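Our collaborator T.R. sent over the components below with a one-line note: 'Predict the complex.' Nothing else. No constraints on interfaces, no templates requested, no preferences about which chain binds where. So this is a plain run: every listed entity goes in together, and whatever single assembly comes back becomes the starting point for the next discussion.
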Amino acid sequence: MQRPVSVSILLIVVALVLVGPHIVLTDPMLTDSAAQLQPPNQQHLLGTDLLGRDVLSRVLHGGRLTLLIAGLSALLAIGIGVPVGGIAGMWSDRIGAVLMIMVNALLAIPSLVIALVVVTLIGRGSLPLVVALGIAQIAPVAVMTRTAILTVRSETYVDAAKSLGATSLQILWHHILPNIRPTVLAYGGVVFSYTLLNGAALSFLGVGNDLGTPDWGVMLAEGRAAFRTAPWIGIAPGVAITLLVWVVNDLTDRAGTRR
Amino acid sequence: MTARLLWRIASALLVIWAAATLAFFALAILPGDAITNQLSQSGADADIIAERREAFGMNDPIEVRYLRFLLNAAKGDLGTSMLSGEPVSEAILRSVPPTFTLAASALLFASAAGILTGIAAALRLPLISLISSGLISLVLSTPIYWTGTLAIYALTVLLGLPASQWNQALPVIVLGFHTAGAIGRVTQGSIRDVLQADYVRTARAKGLRERRIIGVHVLRAALPPVISVIALQAGFLLSGAVITETLFVRPGIGRLLLDAVVQQDYPIVLGVVMLSAVIYVLTGLAAEVALRFVDPRVVL
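Returned assembly:
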């Protein structure tokens, strides 16, 4: 896909999610027993679900929550993963080895188990979902940061700074961080995609957001159950997730290759 | 060399230990457990619940339980299920074969499909590259259970095929399809990088045929990142199996884990976590050995 195409799709999706709820005023939680499982029509442009709720309104209102959850969990993963990976990369002998064993242990635990622990401790809902999705991505972010730092650390300008007497912290702050920032930012997009897809997977397995919440993952899981009789319930959130992840991946790929 | 190898083995064991420890304490602080849930639902008195928990050793201090868990696990005893009383190792051994068949076939399918699609996407062939690249992007941006649902719908409703004709192959294809996405993307990127190397220009200048340049010079040099991503995906297959087995209602490790998670049957959860850690460590080691074979410059 061409870059302008991806950028415009991303902008359109974000605009729809931000502005849409102010245009489509139908309450996404309003049930209507007279209008259950209606296929798309003039009153309900994308049809209605099992409880007669308007699918269009749910996709637009739900988008905000979905993007917020995926974005916050990506921030959580980067906020913890980058410092951990940074320390492991800069002080790679002792502290680094210990940190990497812990990071690998976290990677080795299935994310479903992490989600279970979080959900059982603080209950189902949006906040637990952010925590569960974020924690599961800390380890990959740390591994990526460490690799990026190890690559940069062998560059000649780092040696030069070292021979001029710069301390490790100065080198990290002035020379290494500015150089790995593009890689980290690009990986942030990847993490966002993962958290969006994993959130949907957790909803399918029954440990995601609360049932009935207008969240694309929950809607997709509900749509799957009714797919034979009412495919339109799942198609709208399904297309929304795929489109958004597609353009985010496309943009991060470009950012990553334009080093 | 020997010291490095010993350190590799030691750190592999440490990773398994750390994963088990992390999971043990994380599960230990959770409120509720399978015994309490089951008995209180069936209306048993508090006395009986306390008695059963006592018999399970759950009233001991946490450090005692942790040491007991470690010592027993070192001897190969992972305890028994809180619900069925079946030894955890037996429940796992019973569930491994179907998941192994699923995961191994999916990985084979994914490696073949991913590498081929990745090559097709990296070359500058007019339409084929565009389609392959689009296919990889599509796979990477669709939740796995959604592809499965669409595939089941297409086969049963649109084509009218009975489940008996596809229920063995489809789970493999769906799981493999998703695993292929990352493999395809990495293959594509790696080949594009290698195509810009000086020796490829030299090979072209010498007048070698494009097929030979790609087949001999480029593919081999582009392989290391592909091997790494295949190993990484192999480690993630267990998570994929949870979804695939639930979607297609198949028995296996994924179902065992999901059921144990929902019922809070912690010994089973811990057992599967340890299995998962062992798989993760082994695939990592296997990838390093494979890398060493492909690229002799790599030191183990």
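Summary for T.R.: The two ends of chain A are 19 Å apart (CA to CA).
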